[in-house]
Structure formats: C-alpha cells, structure tokens
Design a protein that fits this description.
Layout (H helix, E strand, L loop, with lengths): L3 E11 L2 E8 L7 H9 L14 H9 L2 H15 L9 H24 L7 E6 L2 E6 L8 E5 L7 E12 L1 H4 L4 E4 L4 E2 L4 E13 L5 H11 L7 H31 L4 H15 L2 H20 L2 E3 L4 H7 L2 E4 L11 E7 L15 H13 L6 H9 L10 E3 L7 E6 L2 E6 L1 H5 L3 H12 L4 E8 L12 E10 L6 H10 L3 E5 L4 H10 L8 E3 L6 H10 L2 E3 L3 H13 L4 E5 L5 H6 L2 E5 L4 H6 L2 E3 L7 H39 L7 H20 L11 H29 L4 H24 L4 H20 L11 H36 L8
Parallel strand pairs: 11-18, 11-21, 18-20, 19-20, 21-22, 22-23
Antiparallel strand pairs: 1-2, 3-4, 3-5, 5-9, 6-7, 6-8, 6-9, 10-23, 12-17, 13-14, 14-15, 15-16, 16-17
Helix pairs in contact: 2-4, 3-8, 4-9, 7-8, 7-21, 8-21, 8-22, 9-21, 9-22, 10-21, 17-18, 21-22, 21-23, 21-24, 22-24, 22-25, 23-24, 23-26, 24-25, 24-26
C-alpha cells in the first residue's frame, strides 16, 4: 500500500508544471520532496506582514509634512537673501522631527520583540519520524502533533487522537472545546489537554489568524487625539491664510514701500513664523515623549504617543471578563458539602468536611496535571491522608469525569449532569444556585461500583460541590471604583454566559453590573444601539458584535476605549477611539492597539489616565502662550497689509520672544503634576485664554508703530521697542499661567526674565536688538504702562462674552466650550 496518493492535479503550480496535492498517512507524513514542492507552490506557513510601520515609513511620515514644508520654503528664502541670522527657528523644527522619529522607532522595536504566535515551533511528522521545526517551516498537509500547552500554528483538521482547546483568543469564549477526529482546529487557539495528530488545511495568509490580521492592517488609519486634531486644524488654517498674507506683505514691502529684497523677505518670514505654532508641536511631542518614558517604567507601552490624551478623555471603557476583571488561571473558590441526602442504603463513610478535604486531596494527588482544572484542584487541596489509588480513570473530554479507586472506596469527580445522571434533577436546584453566582460547579462523590468500558455503574452519592472560578484580580474593585469616580462608564463585553459575567462584574465592583443582556438576542443594529445605552454587561458576544458595540457607542457621541487580548478583539480595537491590549494575549491584538500593558495588569490603567490628564491639562495651559504669539502675528500682519506699513519685527526677534516667554516656560510647566479632570474642548479652552494677550500685543505694538511713524522714530529702534513690549506682555501672561506659584514656577518665571535680559545685553546682534532713541524710549515707557490696564480690560471682556455665549447662545450650564 502506498504511503501517499495524489488527490489533485490543479491545486497549484511550479512555473507551468502542475503541482499535485497529496493525501497523507498520519503515521508517515509528507516526504522531503513533497515539502519542497509545497513550498515552491507558495503553500508554506509564512507569517503575514504585520501592521507595524517600517523605519523608512516612520522617518518619511515625520519629515514630509505640510508643517515642515512651510519651514523648508522659509529657510530657502532666508538663505537666498543671506539672512542666516534669522534661521534661529530651525533647531526647534529639527528637535520636533527627531523626537517623533525616536519615539515611534522605540515603540516599533518593543512590538517586534513580541511574536504573533507564542509557540513558534511545532512537532511535525515527516517520512515516519517526528521532528521539531519552526512553525514557518510547516507546509500545507503537514501532519503536526499537538499536545497540552501547544498553540495551534495554522488551521488544521484532527486526523487521530483527541484534545481540548481554548479558543478564547479567537472567539472570546473561555470554554474548553473538545476536538476529536474530523474536527477543525483554528490557528491561534491553545491545547488545554490531550494529544492528537492534525493535518494542516490552511497556512500562511490563508489561515484564520492571518486573514484577520490582514483585515486589521487594511483598516484606515485615523487621528484619534482631540488635542493633535485641533493643532492640525489650526496649522491647516494658518497654512491656507499665510500664503496670501505672505505674498501681500512681500508685494507691499518690495514694490510699494520700496524696501530691499532682503528686508522684504525677512519681514515677510517674521510674520509667517509668528503665525505658525511651531513650538507647540515641540511642546506636545516632548511632553508626550516624557509621559511615554514614565509609563514605560510602569511596563506600559504607548504604540502611539497621542493615545494617552484620548484615554484621558474617554467616558466609556469596554472591557472583557477574562484577563481584565479576572485572572486567566482558574482556581478553586470553595468546597461545599452536598446538602441533599443521598439514596444510599448504607451510611456515609465520610462524616465531616475535614475528612472530605483530605479524601479529595488523595484523589487529585493521584491525577496528572494535564488541564487547568486539575492544576487548580492540586493547588487548593494540599491536605491528604496519604493514600495511593489502586486504579485511576483520568479525565477525558468524552467522559467528562475522572475516577480513582482506593480499595473498596470509589470516588468520582466531574460535571454534575454526567456524574449524577438520572439523580441530577434531585440536586439541580442546589447546583444551579452556585452556577448562577458565576461558578463552574464540579461534583465530588462516592460511587457504588467501578466504571466499566468508560461508563459509571450504579449510583453516585454526592459528597461535595467544588466551586471553581477565574479569580477576580486583586485590584479590580479599586480600579473600577476609580473609573466610576471619574465619570467613566464601564461596559463588560464577553463571550461567556451573561449571568455568570454579571455576577463576576458585581464582585469586581462595576456599577450597574446587574443590568445584563444576552447578545444573541440583539439581531439588528437598532437593537445594539438601544442595548448599549441601557445595559452594562453583555454576554455571548460575537467578534463582529464587539465592533458594532463600539460603533453604536461612538454614534451616541461617546469617546470609547476598548481593551482586549485576543484576535477576536482586533476589529473592535481598531475602531475604538483608544485601544488597550494585554501583552499576554495575541500579538495581532497588541499590534492593533495604541496602549499595551506589558504585564497584562489592568490595575495600572488609572496611572495611565492620570498621566494623560497631566499632559493634556499642562499642554492646554501652556498652549495659550503659543497662541498669543499666533493671534498677534496674524492680526498685526492684517493691519500691516491694510494700513500699508512694514511688519515691524524680525525672525530673530520673534525667536527671542518665543524662547523666553513661550518655549522654555511652556516646557517646564508641561511637566508639572496635574490630575484635574479634562473639561471642555482643547482649541476653545486655549483660544479663550490666549485671546486677551494676543489682542493686547496687537494694541501695544500697533499703536507703537503708528506713533513711531508720526514722531519720525527710526524703524530699527521701533523694532527693538516692539520686541520689548511683546516681552512685557508675555511675562504678564506667564505670571497668570504660573499661578498658583510653587518653587518650580517661581524659578521658571524669574529665570526666563533674566534669560531674556541676558541675551539682549550679551547677544544683541544675534537677536537684532539695538539701542533706542530718546523718542522711542519715551513711547516705549508709555505703552508699557498702558499694557497692564488693556490686558485686564480685555481679560474681563472675554470672560463676560464667554459667559454670555454659554448662557444664551449654547444654552449650557457646564463647561462644554
């Protein structure tokens, strides 16, 4: 009899030659020649390319942006006219690019160290011999030996033997599923117990896990951070208006005011640089990078730095039961004596719980640890009499019980309906009481007779109910209480029984955990949209429904965070506003997520949220410093065009002011502790704080230029006076932002004043600072005194306008704008 026979002539080809697919003997496997043929035909178990960007893509995306293009053009113009002194803005731009590249490459390196399959090797049968090979060396139709603890490395069908698998990473259901001859095995699932030989039916890109990974990869990349989104909109707006404004300023200066080409370009560049919040991008990048390093020390990886802000803003957190609320490992919760009298005629040979514990201890000591249930039993029942079983009948998925014979005593452990059989109805009420509390119930009892041919004989008298569960994580209650206090609603989405999940959620302290629903009853999108607003716990959820839940919540205007560890979670993770993965799960989920908990401990989530709040609140506070300059430059440029005067500032002067009234203080303030709840929208909060300062700058500098022209003050002197006026207003704004003062903020405020004075005195040529004439100095003093009153008046006016808008225009009573 041939060891293999050809079954198809058209499954693939090598060049123009047809390739045969073979029917393989499970005891012999493929030959080396057949393996080579399959590899040449493209039927190898090669991993699909992952969603991680390459280094080249990371560098490209950080360098080639519209934001950087603007500065490249400005740099070229300044170089063209030889105004190299005014290139002081370049270090900020370069630093911003480098920080983004370094952080993303760092995240890429960590992710690449995680493998999609935790077991990259497999035992394969080839030419009658079993050998260990890398999983990527497997081919279609290979016969692979799977044992307890192995991960299924490709889709397969069982050809001999029997195993139990856990498909929770794929389906979300933690039940152990029996796979016997003819049953399908899905890649990514784990073997819990037993041993089998299976023929690979789909490898590489054709396997289930690979198809899902590819789908995740092709999904559209989105920007989820409101802060970065707002900054992008701001830059986009500026990018549109600065081109015509810049051209008008150049035309006015060169053709109408008859300035030199150098002076015209320099003034135009100064106005444009003042309109672009280049330092704000650097501030956000530095603050996020520092937060990423802080979280890395807590074993939290940010795949995307911006995700920390999104997580700090979420108001709905979707979590799974297993791995998030509970530990992955099973444990014995309690042992309860059976309360219903047995139908035995003889009296019980075991009279108290202490003896029961020891008998169970002898029983489990006789069994092998070939599944998670027995491991949990062995860990719990450590007391024993020291008796050795004469005969054991180990647990199998077919029998669903195990048995041990100690002389005349025969003990059985297994599922209630299997062990008790026709007596089950008598005990069903008692057992259901525990099952409804979320426990997995096993019955330990004494049998009248030994099993024969795998079947129990005679009646079994139940001695105890053993309650098993996945234990609640130690800090689960504390963690979920934190989210409740912060106004974050928790939704539990699981593939398990909804009643069981509800009981566990209650024990974990999740608010409204008693509101549960079976997702199998939610058949339409309308049903799901209604249910996500009413229920907290969702059981029997399919992978497709997880994604629909996320869509429904987002449709209701919620900011959704999704946690997951399985391949079945990928699509929902990709569509959530912020995605969080456990590193102990599938790397496909890790790659699809923005935040990765490297120790798979959900208890660290509050620290991530608090870090996000610190970053967002501080950047929001510091960002108003940047927008003061942007508002001022934009409005002053408009005035210069309308009233036909030359923009009074130089790029070097703008750089000096930006450094000491914006950049340096903003950097230190962004690193200060701040755990306040994030209120309102980023752009509106920042603009409202920046508007009084920006308008004050326009008033002071605009009036200074006008009076200087009337009194015949030299434009060079006017430029220096305008720079000093901007510095005074800048330090007034900084004084308010630093409140309440502490040692760091006092040092920052005083240090920046001294720094600006030092640069003006010791490096005047570098920053285009000159002496002022007597007329110019007098005008400077007058407008310096006036700025404080103007600033106070404009601040009060903006507050009143905001209050009026909130009350009459937006009709709201809380901070939403």
């Amino acid at each position: 009899m041939n060891r293999e026979t050809a079954v198809s002539q058209n499954e693939g080809s090598i060049g123009n030659a047809p390739v045969m697919r073979y029917e393989v003997n499970p005891d012999y496997g493929l030959t080396k020649k057949q393996v080579q043929e399959y590899k040449c035909a493209g039927w190898g178990n090669v991993e699909v390319s992952t969603p991680i960007r390459t280094k080249k893509e990371i560098v490209h995306d950080n360098i080639f942006t519209y934001f950087n293009l603007i500065f490249a053009v400005l740099t070229a113009l300044l170089c063209m006219v030889g105004s190299f002194r005014n290139l002081t803005f370049l270090p900020v731009i370069i630093a911003n690019i480098l920080i983004g590249i370094v952080q993303e490459i760092r995240a890429k390196k960590v992710l690449e160290e995680l493998t999609m399959l935790n077991a990259p090797h497999a035992f394969v049968v080839r030419e009658g011999k079993i050998s260990r090979v890398e999983s990527k060396e497997l081919v279609l139709d290979d016969i692979v030996v799977f044992q307890a603890g192995n991960q299924i490395c490709a889709d397969a069908v069982v050809v001999s033997g029997e195993i139990q698998v856990n498909e929770s990473l794929l389906t979300g259901e933690s039940d152990e599923i029996t796979k016997e001859k003819g049953k399908q095995l899905m890649s990514g699932s784990f073997v819990v117990s037993g041993e089998c030989r299976a023929r690979l039916t789909a490898v590489g890109e054709a396997s289930y896990i690979s198809r899902l990974t590819l789908e995740a990869k092709t999904m559209q990349k989105r920007e989820n951070s409101e802060m970065i989104r707002s900054l992008n909109k701001l830059v986009k707006f500026v990018g549109i208006v600065l081109v015509p404004i810049g051209l008008l300023l150049f035309i006015q200066g060169f053709f109408m005011n008859h300035e030199t080409l150098r002076d015209s370009i320099t003034s135009m560049v100064a106005a444009i640089i003042g309109m672009i919040p280049e330092g704000l991008y650097l501030l956000a990048s530095v603050a996020l990078a520092v937060s990423a390093m802080r979280l890395a020390k807590k074993n939290v990886l940010l795949h995307d730095m911006k995700s920390i802000e999104t997580l700090a803003r979420v108001d709905v957190l979707c979590v799974d039961k297993t791995g998030t609320i509970t530990d992955n490992k099973m444990s014995v919760k309690e042992i309860m004596s059976a309360e219903v009298l047995s139908s035995f005629d003889k009296e019980s040979s075991i009279e108290d719980e202490g003896k029961i514990l020891k008998v169970v201890g002898d029983f489990v000591a006789s069994m092998s640890s070939d599944n998670s249930t027995m491991e949990a039993m062995k860990a719990y029942f450590t007391e024993k009499n020291g008796k050795l079983a004469d005969t054991i009948f180990p647990f199998t998925s077919a029998l669903k019980y195990s048995c041990a014979v100690f002389g005349e005593e025969i003990y059985v452990l297994g599922a209630p309906e299997v062990v008790l059989r026709e007596e089950y109805e008598k005990y069903e009420g008692e057992i259901s009481k525990y099952a409804k509390k979320g426990y997995r119930v096993l019955v330990f009892g004494e049998s009248e007779d030994r099993p024969e041919d795998g079947k129990l004989n005679g009646k079994v008298r139940p001695l105890a109910y053993i309650l098993l569960t996945n234990p609640i994580r130690k800090k689960a209650s504390e963690t979920f209480s934190y989210f409740t206090e912060q106004g974050v609603e928790v939704k539990v989405i699981s593939g398990d029984n909804p009643l069981t999940v509800s009981e566990i959620a209650k024990e974990a302290g999740i608010r409204n955990a008693e509101l549960y629903v079976d997702a199998a009853t939610l058949r339409t999108k309308e049903d799901i949209e209604w249910a996500v607003g009413k229920y907290t716990v969702f059981g029997r959820v399919t992978p497709a429904q997880k994604r629909e839940f996320v869509h429904a919540l987002k449709k209701q205007g919620r900011t959704v965070a999704m946690t997951g560890d399985g391949v079945n979670d990928i699509l929902a993770l990709k569509d959530a506003d912020c995605s969080v993965a456990m590193a102990s799960g599938s790397e496909a989920a890790v790659q699809a997520s923005q935040v990765v908990l490297l120790e798979s401990d959900f208890a660290c989530m509050p620290s991530v949220v608090m870090e996000g709040r610190r970053v967002v609140n501080n950047i929001q506070r510091s960002a108003s410093l940047f927008l003061v300059k942007n508002i001022f430059s934009f409005l002053l440029a408009i005035l210069a065009v309308v009233f036909s005067f030359t923009y009074p500032l130089k790029p070097a002067q703008i750089a000096l002011i930006s450094m000491f009234t914006i950049g340096i203080p903003a950097f230190f303030l962004a690193l200060q502790p701040n755990e306040e709840r994030i209120q309102g929208h980023f752009i509106s909060n920042v603009l409202i704080k920046a508007l009084p300062g920006g308008l004050t700058d326009v008033f002071a500098v605009g009036a200074m230029v006008l009076f200087a022209h009337v009194f015949g003050v030299d434009p060079v002197d006017t430029s220096t006076a305008a720079t000093m006026l901007l510095a005074i207003v800048g330090f007034m704004i900084l004084y308010r932002i630093c409140q309440p003062f502490n040692k760091v903020r006092v040092a920052v405020w005083i240090g920046c004043i001294l720094g600006l004075l030092g640069c003006s005195i010791f490096f005047p040529d570098l920053f285009a600072i000159t002496g002022m004439s007597e007329k110019c100095a007098m005008l400077f003093v007058v407008f310096s005194i006036a700025t404080d009153s103007v600033f106070r008046f404009l601040t009060a006016t903006v507050k009143l306008m905001r209050k009026w808008c909130r009350k009459y225009l937006f009709k709201v009573d809380k901070e939403v704008i």
